[in-house]
Amino acid sequence: MKPTMAKVLPACLLLALLLLAPALLAQEERGLIMNLDTGELCLQSVQCKSGCCHHDHILGLTRCAPKAAEFQECSPKTVYGIYYKCPCESGLKCDADKSIVGAITNTNYGLCKDPRE
Amino acid sequence: MLGIWILGLFLLSAAEGKEVCYDRLGCFSDDAPWSGTVERPIYKLPWKPESIGTQFLLYTRQNENYAQEVSAVDKSTITASNFNTNRKTRFIVHGFIDHGEENWLSDMCKRMLSVEDVNCICVNWKKGSRCQYTQAANNIRVVGAEIAYFLNVLMDDYGYSPAHVHIIGHSLGAHVAGEAGRRRPGIGRITGLDPAQPYFQNTPTEVRLDKSDAEFVDVIHTDSAPTIPNLGFGIRTPVGHLDFYPNGGEEMPGCDKNAISQIVDLDGIWEGTRDFVACNHLRSYKYYSDSIMYPDGFLGYPCASYNLFQEGKCFPCPEEGCPNMGHYADRYKDKIKNNELTKFYLNTRETKNYPLWRYKVSVTLSGKSKVKGYVNVALYGTNGNTKQHQITKGTLKPDNTYIAYIDAEVNVGQVTKVKFLWNNNLPNPTLPKLGAATVTVEAGGNRAQYRFCGSEIVREDVLLTLNAC
């Protein structure tokens, strides 16, 4: 039930973004839908330059955020495409206690670790 | 016809050379340079003090969460308040449209009170700031005179020296501080947070904030593009003993977000709307506020231009050190040499917790294959580790050395090891391997140098740890 709520809220945002897109799509480089900077509103991680669309709680707005560095909190890649804790930077592994409940509620948190250490 | 000309001349002469006089504060004229110059074409006189209603809202460690209003006219309010003559006093003055009860002023007081015991006074002149810009730009003369009057009362009745006073002014408030300093010489310090540009840039020193207004004047420039056509609100020219231009002083990172993302801000719609209107301009007080908590996080590198700074031509800090932008800039006071270059450059982060620490990183590649891709390096030290920072992108050739200047979000302290990672932009079926033979790191602040070696070569997206050698 929780994940569906999370999708309803951004849907309104997507509509708003789409309506405003023609008016605001002035520059090529930094997009309104794709290639978003840190701090910009997003719906899916693919939209972000950083590759992480993040929110603090289920009803919180989702914004692009940097990926987690080593020893920072993280969650493994999920099917939802939005995160409470961003996935790790490349080369690192999110060392999390994976559980089914955690996978459904998107709360499989862990710490980023170097698999070679 | 002649009648109209005479009438016209009469009106013109009536508009020029007018003067108003107020009790306590003295007279204000609209003669040049106050009006009728190229920079200040419209004739305006400041409003009377009662219409502006300048308020002094005092915060101390005894009352961090509520303000006590003090007034120099009714001296009993000062005696009855928590004002203490054994402490320093810092005034915070807001700018155009703003008001003294706005959160950023009291938040700044709270942060100061968490690190030092001071009298923190927010100056509220909202009635005088919420009008036409040309009027507000003249009302600052009365507000400056009110502060000078307040300081005079403190000196005469309490023997409190203006040398213990620090005035922090944002935008028009910076020129309020300048006016107060001109009227009451000997003020210890004035900080100008992006002093307003229209009606002040290129004007004589008595009109605007200038280094002659206090013993030490430091300025942060965050919106110094020309008002026409770029809508920059901040003054462009250096006006203090130390002038800081974070991120080049014109465009602040985090201020070019799309409209919705900017307005629907993490700190609420009101903060977002303020940023939507004047993001660059408002960054100046946010940096200052953060600098209170991060004494070494805003080092300003002396440099001739921002481009040279970005290219690393002004790295590292000179031997006597770099000044801190913001609250601790006065620690550099004794190192200022006369008539020397006063522009300082640095970079900041794009969101809250703005400080960054600059390092120079050189990477010498090892391996056999020449590939296209990028190289990342993360620093590990006694105080923590950074995220991965890109050192180079493009053709990666073994034995070549790539140099980059990175602004780390963490002060890692003494660097103990580094990690290297490279990535091919496209899948490569030959599965090439690359490594880093040596990585050298130089910290900008204390000029410390570190050297790390590696003998391995790795496939893409594999972290390679290099230890000291």
UniProtKB/TrEMBL annotation, chain A:
Enterostatin has a biological activity as a satiety signal. Colipase is a cofactor of pancreatic lipase. It allows the lipase to anchor itself to the lipid-water interface. Without colipase the enzyme is washed off by bile salts, which have an inhibitory effect on the lipase. Residues 72-114 form the Colipase C-terminal domain. CDD domains: CLPS (cd23011). One of its GO terms (biological process) is lipid catabolic process. It comes from Serinus canaria. One of its GO terms (cellular component) is extracellular region. InterPro entries: CLPS_chr, Colipase, Colipase_C, Colipase_CS, Colipase_N. Keywords: Digestion, Disulfide bond, Lipid degradation, Lipid metabolism, Secreted, Signal. The keyword Membrane does not apply. It holds the Pfam family Colipase_C. Residues 1-26 form the signal peptide. Its main location: secreted. GO terms for molecular function: enzyme activator activity; lipase binding. Forms a 1:1 stoichiometric complex with pancreatic lipase. It is found in: Secreted. The keyword Disulfide bond applies. Residues 30-68 form the Colipase N-terminal domain. This is Colipase.
